[in-house]
Each structure stands twice: as structure tokens, then as C-alpha cells.
Specification:
This protein is mostly helical. Helix 6 packs across helix 9 and helix 21 packs antiparallel against helix 22. The chain is elongated, with a radius of gyration of 28 Å.
């Protein structure tokens, strides 16, 4: 038969089975077809040989009977679902092919571990992608083997996690890691190492999903097991993930304590990954609180760590954060350069989660440059990616920026609608910095509409959170907004706000905010008209 590029079969599948099943050939060939029915999403010739013991001649014979389809461009075979269902019924209950299949794909996945953590993980992802359905089938099969498969599952765990991270499959990842940790925990000492690492990966994806308090509970369990197994690396990474959960909840002091504990462990173990993430998250915390020089230094150290281990995925993440620091410092050109560099890397490694974040951040630059249609394009692309990956924090930030962009376009109803969505998501995931920013932007929209009462209320809510959480840049913007809003109604109160804004802007050394604060303060010092 000629190669079939579209994987179509030579006859309707059910008819093909009915007419061909009685003349498949030898019992050995029938057994091969039954074993091949275990594959999902197709299979390569090497997999057919090693899993089903089907050699080239047997595969050719099955193709001639229209029971297999072959794509010569991919060098892969496939069974039609109906044929697969019929063939699978012929597999003996005593046949061990399912276990062989699971072992084969776990080893295949583990073999990509190093490549996934280097400068071109996209090549490993592309190699895994055709067989991801086989991996999905292999994983629970291996879990059903209990402690006998613990070592193979552990070797494949990190590659699977990285694959999920890059593809943005956060919900599936969290569920898989949760099931793995629970199963391994029941195996006693044989499953301890797997339970620890699966628990940490579960917490990683819970953080991505905005489930920060459940993530902390997961980390507690993983750290207890790490202490039992004397796994210092896991202890350090647990503190990193705990620190991330805490700063996303607005608990910055507690987050810094956990990250500094993790950093000490990272240095003691010479664990570059732990140290790099500590510097990254410490830099993010400093950026949020307006300590831009310290933030930049931490993030540069994170980038140096990622470069030393040649990890392009992590480097792109820290470059994105450097872009935000430069933006907050008023360096739009430097911010855009860092973000575009991060986007180039993120696109190369096909990190869909990061691409959504970067598109959102680039929209901020576009808004500042009055490119509102360009910002709209970035935001809608970013929203699709954030929704697909389950990134609630990303969705909240994008809706907030959409609201700001709609305001600049004069679409006030859409502005309020988007900002309300952003605020609702921020409240759901308890992201206080995002809550403060969304409220600030809502206040700006209400101010543009002339709704002084709602604007003052929203500025006040934003300012309260910002002052409680030491979000200095947001607090300064809220003070400026209040001063501008109230200058015609309560000049003395407006003066108080503008004076506080000047002091704060000078402290955080943000030129744009300082210019705005001084401008409104100067206006308020002039005699009232």
C-alpha cells in the first residue's frame, strides 16, 4: 500500500475489521495487533518492536490488510479507534504488555531530562509531543505497579513537570502531581522520594493556578517528608515555593524569611537552581515594594545563575522581571528591550505561560507609548494564553490592563467591566498587589467619568492596601490621584496628599511619579483661583 500521510484507512474501520479479522494470519500476528492496540495517539516502529515485539514484516502485513495506517513523513503508525477497541478485546488478561508500554514511555521521558533544562528545551518538547497520549496512559499504569515503579516514575517526574510548564497544561499537571504524591505516600519508604518531589511539583502548579494557601499546605506535607528522608535539596526548594506563595498573598516579610532560608540551603548545597529562584523571587518582592536597585541586583544574580546552567526557560522568566523593574523606573526603552529579549527566548522554548505574561507586560509599554491598538492586540493574545494555561494571576493582570487601555480609548463602560473582572480574580486568589492596582485603575476611570465619590472610595481602598503591604509605587499613584481629584473640593486635604506623594516619590526614585507628584503639589501651593 502507498504511504498514507493523513492517517486515513483503506476501508471504513468497522468493515475493515469485520472483513479482515478472520484472515489476519498467524496467531502471532493476531497477538501483535492486540498488543499494538495498547498505544494511544500512534507509535513509532521502535516502540512497536520494543513494546509489542512487532517487527517490520509484521507491521507491513497489518498495513496490507488495512489494519494499520502509516505516515511516512512522521514514520509513525496508528490504529483506527474502532479497530483498536476490537483488537484490545483479544489481549490476554495475563499479558504484561501494558507494563512494558509504561516502562518504555517513562524511560523515554526520563531520557529528555537534561535537554529540557538547557538552552533548547523546545526540541525535547517536540520529540515528546507525538507520544504525550502514550505518556498519559503510561503514568497511571506505572502508579498501579506501586513501589516497583517508584524509581522510574521519579526519573520521569521532572521532565514531565517541565513539559507541562512549557505547554501551559497547568490543571492537568496539578492533578497528575497530586495523584502521584498521594499514591507514592502510601508505599512507605519505597515511595518517599517520589512523594516528596511530586508534592513540590504539585505546589508549583498550585501557585500557578492561584491556589496559594493550598500550595502552602502541600509544601508543609512535602517538607515533613523531606525531613524524614533527610532531603535537603527538597527542603530548600520547598522554602522557595513557600516564599513564592507568601509574596503572592502579600505577606512579603514572611516570604523574604523563607527565601533567605532557602538561599542558605542553596549555598550550602551549591544548588544553583535553588539560589537562582531565591534571587528571582527576592527581586520580584523588592520590585513590588519599590526598591528598584535591590530588585535589579537580585534579578541580575538570578540571570547569572540561569546562564551558568544554560537554562533558557528560567533566563527568559527573570529577564521579564527585569523588564518590569526598568518600566517601574521609567526606562521604557530598557524595559522593552528586556521584555522583547525574554519574549524571543520564551517563543524559542515555546513557554506558553511566559508568553502570556510577556504579552501583558508589552501591552503596558504600548499603552505608555499611546499605541492603544497595539496594546489591545497584545492583551487579547495574552488573555487567550493565560486562560488556556489556567493562569488566574495572569488573567487578572490582563483584565486590569485591558481596563486601563479601554479608558485611554474612551470606552468607559468596557473599562469598568474589565477592571471589575480583574479585581474579582485578584480577590479570588488573594493577590493583594493586584487588588490595589485594579482599584487604582478603577479610581482613574471613575475620575475620568466625573464620579468623584466612587473615585475617592476606590483610591482610598487602593491606598489602604498599598500602605499596609508597603507597595510604595501604588501608594504614590493613589496619593497623586487623590490630590488631583480633591483639589477643587478640599484643597487642604489635597495638599496633604500631594505632599505625601512627593516624599514617597523621592524615596522610591521613580522620575515619572516624582514629576507628577511635584506638578500637582506645585499647583496646590498656588493661590486658589
Amino acid at each position: 500500500n502507498a504511504p498514507c500521510h493523513s492517517m486515513n484507512f483503506g476501508a471504513p474501520a468497522a468493515d475493515a475489521w469485520r472483513t479482515k479479522s478472520k484472515s489476519i494470519g498467524s496467531p502471532a500476528l493476531q497477538r501483535r495487533l492486540a498488543r499494538l492496540a495498547l498505544f494511544r495517539g500512534g507509535f513509532a516502529p521502535a516502540a512497536a518492536q520494543q513494546v509489542a515485539q512487532a517487527d517490520a514484516a509484521q507491521l507491513a502485513a497489518l498495513r496490507e490488510k488495512s489494519l494499520l495506517a502509516y505516515d511516512d513523513t512522521l514514520d509513525r503508525y496508528a490504529l483506527h479507534p474502532i479497530i483498536r477497541a476490537y483488537a484490545a478485546e483479544k489481549l490476554s488478561p495475563a499479558d504484561q504488555t501494558a507494563h512494558v508500554h509504561a516502562d518504555y514511555y517513562l524511560r523515554l521521558l526520563a531520557g529528555y531530562n537534561e535537554l529540557l533544562q538547557k538552552d533548547a528545551p523546545q526540541h525535547a518538547v517536540a520529540a515528546i509531543e507525538p507520544d504525550i497520549d502514550n505518556v498519559r496512559l503510561a503514568w497511571p499504569t506505572a502508579l498501579d505497579q506501586h513501589e516497583a515503579a517508584a524509581g522510574r516514575l521519579l526519573a520521569a517526574l521532572k521532565p514531565l513537570s517541565i513539559y507541562y510548564q512549557l505547554r501551559g497544561l497547568t490543571h492537568e499537571a496539578e492533578a497528575t502531581m497530586r495523584a502521584t504524591a498521594a499514591a507514592a505516600a502510601a508505599w512507605g519508604s519505597s515511595g518517599l522520594a517520589l512523594a516528596i518531589r511530586a508534592g513540590l511539583e504539585q505546589a508549583r502548579f498550585q501557585n500557578r493556578l492561584g491556589r496559594h494557601r493550598p500550595a502552602i499546605a502541600t509544601i508543609h506535607a512535602a517538607l515533613a517528608r523531606a525531613a524524614q528522608g533527610a532531603d535537603r535539596w527538597a527542603e530548600g526548594m520547598g522554602y522557595v515555593l513557600w516564599g513564592e506563595a507568601l509574596w503572592r498573598l502579600g505577606e512579603y516579610g514572611a516570604a523574604e524569611n523563607k527565601l533567605n532560608d532557602a538561599l542558605a540551603i542553596g549555598h550550602a548545597l551549591n544548588a544553583t537552581e535553588i539560589a537562582g529562584w531565591c534571587h528571582h523571587h527576592l527581586g520580584v518582592i523588592d520590585d513590588i515594594q519599590g526598591y528598584y536597585a535591590a530588585a535589579h541586583e537580585h534579578l541580575l544574580q538570578a540571570c547569572a545563575a540561569w546562564q551558568s546552567i544554560n537554562n533558557a526557560q528560567y533566563l527568559s522568566i527573570s529577564l521579564n522581571s527585569i523588564g518590569l523593574v526598568r518600566y517601574h523606573q521609567g526606562d521604557l526603552a530598557g524595559a522593552q528591550q528586556a521584555m522583547e529579549q525574554a519574549l524571543t527566548l520564551g517563543s524559542q522554548v515555546d513557554n506558553r505561560h511566559l508568553q502570556g505574561s510577556l504579552l501583558n507586560n508589552l501591552s503596558i509599554i504600548a499603552i505608555e507609548q499611546a499605541d492603544y491598538m497595539g496594546a489591545q492586540y497584545y492583551l487579547h493574545l495574552g488573555l487567550d494564553l493565560a486562560a488556556t494555561s489556567g493562569d488566574l494571576a495572569g488573567q487578572g493582570a490582563i483584565y486590569t490592563n485591558l481596563g486601563k487601555n479601554y479608558r485611554m480609548l474612551g470606552e468607559m463602560a468596557l473599562s469598568i467591566e474589565s477592571l471589575t473582572k480583574g479585581l474579582s480574580i485578584a480577590e479570588t486568589i488573594e493577590n493583594r498587589s493586584l487588588m490595589a492596582i485594579a482599584m487604582l485603575s478603577l479610581a482613574n476611570t471613575y475620575k475620568a467619568l466625573g464620579d468623584v465619590e466612587q473615585a475617592e472610595l476606590s483610591y482610598g481602598h487602593s491606598l489602604t492596601i498599598a500602605q499596609q503591604d508597603k507597595l510604595q509605587s501604588t501608594a504614590c499613584e493613589a496619593l497623586i490621584g487623590l490630590a488631583e481629584l480633591l483639589r477643587g473640593r478640599s484643597r487642604s486635604q489635597a495638599k496633604q496628599y500631594s505632599a505625601e506623594a512627593v516624599v514617597l516619590a523621592e524615596a522610591i526614585q521613580t522620575p515619572q511619579l516624582l514629576e507628577r507628584a511635584k506638578a500637582i503639589d506645585h499647583q496646590l501651593q498656588l493661590p486658589a483661583p
